[in-house]
Amino acid sequence: MLNINFVPDDYIQSGESRRTNLMYLVLFAVVMAALGGVFMTIKIGQGAFSAKEELVNAKMARAKEAIKQFEELQTKRKIMIKTALTTAELLEPVPRSVLLASLTNNLPAGVSLLRLNLIQKEPKAVNSIAATNKYTQAQAKKAAADQSKVSREKSLETYIDIEGVAPSDLQVATYIEQLSDSTLLDNVALVESKECKVEGAVFRQFKLTAMLKKDVHLTKEDIGRIRVKYERAFY
User: Which of 81, 85, 115, 173 could be joined to 163 by an S-S link, Cβ 3.0–4.6 Å?
Assistant: First the structure.
């Protein structure tokens, strides 16, 4: 049987063109939707990145401020330490390490120190004869007022208690003599010397008292010589 198509070719072509155009439109819409989704994703990512960047910048600003404060504190600390050392040098002209080195340098052979104690005290007031007239009383009051202006730290006296052991009283006497000749000490005196046994050997356990001389100011060369002598004796 013969099939006859009564639809014009122009109509068929126009229908195919419409379907093709519709397909292109759908594809275009899909592509645009995909591009819109990618754009929105990028914008959201940029917003999140900007927020993170602002947070990091804020943290860096706080860190810089903390570092600045820390550096200021370190600078103040160095100034305070320098001031404290300067004050200590003024109040303690003879460092305790140098005093210990001097006591050790003067040890005779066989003598060892067991204990060393430094005590600072205010000097005892000197009793004066009572004033018999108003002029003398006024002079005494003025002298007392002047005396009160003197720095308390500068007027402190340093007493030293020394305990040790020696083979005999001869070494103890030698040690007392050497300390008495020291430029740092004054009023070296023996308090006690008694017999003691250490691991079966007989020794003399002694106690001494001494006083740090006032107005003693050692130079750096003096301190260096004392410390070098102490290190040589120690090693």
Answer: 115
